[in-house]
Write a structure and sequence with these properties.
Number of helices of chain B: 8
Strand content of chain B: 15-25%
Structural class of chain A: mainly alpha
Radius of gyration of chain B: 20 Å
Helix content of chain B: 25-40%
Order of helices and strands of chain B: EHEEHEEHHHEHEHEEH
CATH class of one domain in chain B: Mainly Alpha
Number of domains of chain A: 1
Distance between the termini of chain B: 35 Å
CATH topology of one domain in chain B: Helicase, Ruva Protein, domain 3
Shape of chain A: globular
Largest interface: A-B, 33 and 36 residues
Helix content of chain A: over 70%
Largest sheet of chain B: 6 strands, mixed
Number of strands of chain B: 9
Number of helices of chain A: 13
Strand order of the largest sheet of chain B: 5-6-7-3-8-9
Oligomer: heterodimer
Distance between the termini of chain A: 27 Å
Radius of gyration of chain A: 19 Å
Shape of chain B: globular
Largest sheet of chain A: none
Strand content of chain A: under 5%
Chain lengths: ~260, ~240
C-alpha cells in the first residue's frame, strides 16, 4: 500500500500529462469535438426524457436533471470498467517497452474520464438552476458520495485489469454484466417506482451503482439525507477491493507482458 | 575494482502456464487448455561493470531479448535477482512505445516521464531531440501519421538524447535512410563510448559487435555458453554456426 502511494507520487506528472494529452488528441481534429462532449449526452438526455415522460408517464420531479445525473454517474462507471478490462492490452506498445506500475494506467483514465464527468456535472448544475431546485445543506453529501464512488470504481477496475490480461473474453463478459447492471441501476427511471416490494428494497441497496445514484439524487435534487449505513458498507467494500486489486497487480504485473 | 552496474544472480525466466484462457473455451471444452512451459533463461548469473559494452549473441530463441526485457524491468524473473543499484534504464528496440493518437512532441514527454526524467529535463532536451529526428513540422502531428522511417527516427532520437545510465539495445544499430543511418550510428558510438554508461547490445551482426563491444556473452538455449573477450567468443560462435 505504501508502494502504491509512492508510485502515484512518482508518476503524478506522467498521469497529468498523459490525461491532458489524451483529452487534447480527442479534440485535435476539430473544434467541434469538445462541443460533442456536451452535445452528445445532452441529446441522449433529450431523447430519454422525451421517451420516459411521453410513453411511460413518469412522474419524476426535475426529470431532465434526474436523467442527466443518472447518465453522468453511470457513464463514468461504465467507461472506466470497459477500458480497464482491456487496459494492459491497449497499452501494449508502452508496457512492453518500459516498466510502469499498471494501476497508474487506471488512475490516468480516472483523471481523463473524470474531467469529462465534471463537464457533465456542470450541466447537471445548470439544469438544477433552471428547475430552481432549492439549495440545501444536504447537497454537501454529494462530495463524500463522489469520493466513495471513485474508490469503489478504482477497486473494481484494478481487479478487472488484472483478470482482463489472463482471460481473453472477459471484455465480452463485462459488457453483458454491465448491461444487466444498467437496467438494475435506474438511470432513466426511479427504481422504487418500477420495482415495488421486497425486491425493490434490496436492489437499491445491494446494487452499489443504484445506491450511489440514489444517494446522489437524494442529496443534490431532493435535499434529503442519503442512505448513510449502506453508503458506509459500500465504501468499506470499495476499499477492500482496492486492497485486493492493488495486491494482485503488484504481485503479477511483470508477468502481464509475457501473456500479451 | 570498478563498481558493478548490473548484478544478475541465478536468473530464471519462463513462460509457463501464462497464456490467456477464455471463459467461452472453459464452457465449450471444459477446463483450461494445456500450456506448454518454456524456460527462456536458466540460472544465468552475470556481473556487468560500469562503462562496459556487453554484446549478446546466440541463435533465435536463445533468450537474448528475454534477458534485455528482464533487465529493463518489463518481465518478472521466476527466481533470481537483478540489481541495478537504482540506475535509470532504457530499452531501445524496434517500434518504441508510442501513443498513436498523440503528437510526436507529446510522446517525447511521455516517454521521458516514464524513463524517470522530470518535465524540465525533457523540455531542455526537446530541441535536440526534434532536430536530430529530422521530423520538422511533423513533430506536432499525431504519431499515427508517421511513416515507418519517421517512427524509428523519433524512437532513436528519444533514447539517444534522454540518456539513461544503462542502455539496452535490441537489434537496432541503424535506422532510417542512408543519411540517417550514418548519423545515428555515429551518435550511437558516442553514446556507447561514454565511460559512465553501461550498454547491452543484442545483435546478429558479428562485424558490428566486434567493433563496438568490450565483452561478449553467448547465450545458448537460455544458458551462458561463453562469456569473455569479444574476439574469442565471436570466433568460437562463428565456428559453431
Amino acid at each position: 500500500m505504501i508502494k502504491f502511494f509512492s508510485d502515484i507520487k512518482k508518476y503524478a506528472s506522467y498521469i497529468f500529462y498523459s490525461a491532458k494529452a489524451e483529452l487534447k488528441s480527442e479534440v485535435a481534429n476539430s473544434i467541434l469535438n469538445w462541443i460533442w462532449w456536451i452535445l452528445e449526452p445532452l441529446c441522449f438526455m433529450g431523447i430519454y426524457a422525451f421517451v420516459f415522460t411521453i410513453f411511460f408517464k413518469g412522474k419524476v420531479k426535475y426529470i431532465a436533471a434526474f436523467i442527466f445525473l443518472g447518465i453522468t454517474v453511470w457513464e463514468f462507471f461504465n467507461v472506466m470498467l470497459k477500458t480497464s478490462v482491456k487496459l494492459v492490452r491497449s497499452n501494449k506498445p508502452i508496457v512492453s517497452k518500459v516498466y510502469v506500475p499498471k494501476y497508474i494506467l487506471i488512475v490516468e483514465k480516472i483523471l481523463r474520464n473524470g474531467f469529462k464527468t465534471m463537464i457533465s456535472f456542470l450541466i447537471v448544475f445548470v439544469l438544477m438552476f433552471i428547475y430552481r431546485v432549492p439549495l440545501s445543506w444536504q447537497m454537501l453529501w454529494a462530495i463524500p458520495i463522489l469520493v466513495s464512488f471513485i474508490i469503489f470504481t478504482f477497486g473494481a477496475c484494478s481487479i478487472l485489469l488484472h483478470f482482463g490480461v489472463y482471460v481473453e473474453d472477459l471484455a465480452n463478459f463485462t459488457n453483458i454484466a454491465l448491461r444487466l447492471l444498467f437496467y438494475a441501476t435506474g438511470v432513466f427511471y426511479n427504481l422504487a417506482d418500477k420495482i415495488t416490494g421486497e425486491l425493490g428494497y434490496w436492489i437499491v441497496r445491494l446494487n452499489p451503482l443504484a445506491l450511489y445514484l440514489n444517494c446522489m439524487r437524494e442529496s443534490l435534487l431532493y435535499g434529503t439525507m442519503p442512505n448513510l449505513p449502506w453508503l458506509g458498507i459500500w465504501t468499506v467494500f470499495g476499499i477492500l477491493m482496492c486492497f485486493v486489486g492493488i495486491k494482485l497487480i503488484q504481485k503479477n504485473e511483470n508477468s502481464y507482458v509475457k501473456v500479451l | 575494482m570498478r563498481d558493478i552496474a548490473i548484478h544478475i544472480e541465478n536468473l530464471n525466466v519462463s513462460y509457463k502456464e501464462l497464456s490467456a484462457y477464455s471463459i467461452k473455451r472453459m464452457f465449450l471444452k471444459g477446463g483450461k487448455k494445456k500450456d506448454k512451459s518454456f524456460h527462456a533463461l536458466k540460472n544465468v548469473s552475470l556481473d556487468i561493470k560500469k562503462g562496459e559494452i556487453l554484446g549478446i549473441i546466440g541463435k533465435n530463441g536463445s533468450g537474448k531479448s528475454t534477458l534485455l526485457n528482464t533487465v529493463a524491468g518489463i518481465f518478472a524473473p521466476d527466481s533470481g535477482t537483478i540489481d541495478l543499484n537504482g540506475k535509470k534504464v532504457s530499452l531501445l528496440s524496434i517500434g518504441v512505445g508510442f501513443q498513436k493518437d498523440m503528437s510526436g512532441r507529446e510522446n517525447i514527454v511521455l516517454n521521458g516521464l516514464l524513463l524517470g526524467f522530470s518535465e524540465e529535463e525533457i523540455r531542455e532536451k526537446m530541441p535536440d531531440i526534434i532536430e536530430f529526428s529530422e521530423l520538422g513540422s511533423f513533430i506536432d502531428k499525431p504519431v499515427k501519421t508517421y511513416s515507418k522511417g519517421m517512427y524509428s527516427k523519433l524512437a532513436f532520437s528519444i533514447t539517444a538524447f534522454l540518456e539513461t545510465d544503462i542502455i539496452l539495445i535490441d537489434e537496432v544499430l541503424s535506422v532510417g535512410d542512408e543519411h540517417f543511418k550514418k548519423k545515428s550510428s555515429a551518435k550511437m558510438k558516442e553514446l556507447i563510448s561514454d565511460k559512465n554508461r553501461t550498454v547491452l547490445i543484442v545483435s546478429h551482426s558479428i562485424s558490428t559487435l566486434r567493433k563496438l563491444c568490450t565483452k561478449m556473452l553467448w547465450l545458448h538455449d537460455g544458458k551462458i555458453k561463453m562469456l569473455g573477450d569479444t574476439n574469442e567468443v565471436l570466433t568460437a560462435y562463428e565456428q559453431y554456426m
